[in-house]
From TrEMBL:
Organism, as annotated: Spiroplasma floricola 23-6
The keyword ATP-binding is annotated on this UniProt entry: no
Residue numbers annotated as active site: 247
Database matches in Pfam families: Aldedh (PF00171)
Keywords: NADP, Oxidoreductase
Family per record: Belongs to the aldehyde dehydrogenase family.
Protein name: Glyceraldehyde-3-phosphate dehydrogenase
Domain Aldehyde dehydrogenase, residue spans: 19-464
InterPro entries for this protein: Ald_DH/histidinol_DH, Ald_DH_C, Ald_DH_CS_CYS, Ald_DH_CS_GLU, Ald_DH_N, Aldehyde_DH_dom, ALDH-related_metabolic_enz
Gene3D superfamilies named in the record: Aldehyde Dehydrogenase, Chain A, domain 1 (3.40.605.10), Aldehyde Dehydrogenase, Chain A, domain 2 (3.40.309.10)
CDD domains reported in the protein's UniProt record: ALDH_F11_NP-GAPDH
Record keyword Oxidoreductase present: yes
One of the record's GO molecular function terms: lactaldehyde dehydrogenase (NAD+) activity
């Protein structure tokens, strides 16, 4: 039984109250973390505020040197961290380790990029103002609340935490309930690394019980949140005077316009749709294909999907159990709705508790829920469309606008199509994806607010402070 404590002011908090975290693969308890009280959570924000000014006054290179000790401990413990991730979210061990290594790479890149956030120097002569020089530097916003999701509980946590800390902010970090074990595991590493007191605090507890307490604290200067649309919109309403960066849901379409490289298209679509059992905001969640080539594409997809391994994380299966049975019930409901309305189940539609076989649904129409709702599971709907204009209309009618893919060998057609799709990013001849992590990452509509990516996150964690010299 793993047991990890919350961290406030570099002190491990054991208040005798615990939150159990389930292992989705075994449906047994994987471990437990401290369930904090409202008073303890408020204390975390208070110490973060009290520590912020002195932390910001530390020279940038010295902040990086201090944080590097923490980074090195992550590297030393990467196999243990990967094991915890696998146990609490049923991600296979290979992908869990890959997530940790990717996070270390992001931290290293962040350290280097932070050195290049330089002041902006201006003169007033262009506006007729003589003898004025303005120097505009990026300074910390203050106290950052970082909230991570269950699906990438390590990577998407530190993509927020490290940019915040390196730029002189202090952090209160709330991991998702499933994801709390690896989040709270960091408490011991913070202490071992000797980070200054109060700059990085880890608060744990069930989100629906403490969520409002966490997100409404008056000490918060910025919230960086990755998670559901419902909670994201709640934060929007509560944090009206707080800077926000939100990464929410997606209904990422893949538009297949020709049949000149269907094998490659199918590989990209399958990796996009079924990676980590489809539990990704950037997963391919619907295929819009020209009706004339749909039969060929569906046959290729079926063959490749049937070769995917299905099983447990410890066996490094490609398809592993979804996060819980409630999620599996929702996914199954979308499949059943499509089938009842005339869609054709090509493969899959098999389930053992929360282990769901990869499902391919053909002849999906706009009256079916799966055409619009985000399943967050291993199900892929195929919609047969007669024209590019109709594909674009269906893609744009979604409440979401995260990413999309266009598969086409004629680059002129691909680009002209991509420019008409209303999303944060359109990928040409590849699946939707968050990386490379040095690229800006953003969504519009219900998919999010603000921009992430290494440089963009550093900028979002800071604001301009101007100094005007008159001479």
């Amino acid at each position: 039984m793993r047991q990890y404590n919350a961290l406030i002011n570099n002190e491990l908090i054991d208040n005798g109250q615990w939150l159990e975290i389930m292992n989705p693969a075994t449906l047994n308890v994987a471990g437990k973390v401290t369930a904090l009280t409202a008073e303890e959570i408020n204390k975390a924000f208070s110490v973060a505020r009290n520590s912020q000014q002195s932390w910001e006054e530390v020279l940038l290179l010295d902040r990086i040197s201090i944080l590097r000790k923490f980074r090195d401990l992550i590297d030393e413990n990467k196999n243990e961290i990967a094991q915890i991730i696998s146990e609490e979210i049923a991600k296979n061990l290979k992908e869990s380790l890959s997530e940790v290594i990717r996070t270390i790479e992001i931290i290293d890149y962040t350290f280097e990029e932070a050195k290049r956030i330089e002041p902006l120097a201006l003169t007033g002569e262009g506006m007729g103002a003589k003898n004025k020089i303005g120097i505009f530097s990026r300074v910390a916003k203050g106290v950052v609340l970082a909230i991570s999701p269950f699906n990438y509980p390590f990577n998407l946590a530190f993509a927020k935490i490290i940019p915040a800390l390196v730029m002189g902010n202090t952090v209160v970090f709330k991991p998702a309930t499933a994801g709390s074990l690896v989040g709270a595991y960091m408490s011991n590493l913070v202490i071992q690394a000797g980070l200054p007191k109060g700059i990085f605090n880890i608060v744990t507890g069930r989100g629906r019980e403490i969520g409002d307490i966490i997100t409404s604290n008056p000490e918060i200067d910025m919230i960086s949140f990755t998670g559901s649309v419902g909670i994201g919109n709640q934060i929007r309403k509560m944090g009206s005077t707080t800077d926000l960066v939100l990464e929410l849901g997606g209904k990422d379409p893949a538009l297949v316009l020709d049949d000149l490289n269907l094998e490659k298209y199918a590989d990209e679509i399958i990796n996009g749709a079924y990676g980590y059992s489809g539990q990704r905001c950037t997963a391919v969640k619907r295929v819009l294909v020209n009706n004339k080539i749909a039969d060929k594409l569906v046959l290729i997809l079926k063959t490749k999907i049937n070769s995917l391994s299905v099983g447990m994380p410890k066996d490094n299966a490609f398809i592993t159990p979804v996060i819980d049975e409630k999620s599996a019930d929702f996914i199954q409901g979308l499949i059943d709705d499509a089938k009842n309305k005339g869609a054709e189940i090509i493969t899959g539609n098999k389930r053992e508790k929360n282990l769901m076989w990869p499902t391919l649904i053909d002849k999906v129409t706009i009256d079916m829920k799966v055409a619009w709702e985000e399943p967050f599971g291993p199900v892929l709907p195929v919609m047969r469309i007669d024209s590019i204009d109709e594909m674009i209309k269906i893609a744009n009618d979604s409440q979401f606008g995260l990413q999309a893919s266009v598969f086409c060998q004629d680059i002129s057609i691909a680009l002209s199509t991509a420019k008409r799709i209303k999303t944060g990013t359109v990928n040409i001849n590849s699946r939707p994806q968050r990386g490379p992590d040095s690229f800006p990452f953003l969504g519009i509509k219900d998919s999010g607010e603000g921009v992430q990516g290494i440089r963009e996150s550093l900028l979002s964690m800071t604001r301009y402070q101007g100094l005007v010299i008159n001479y």
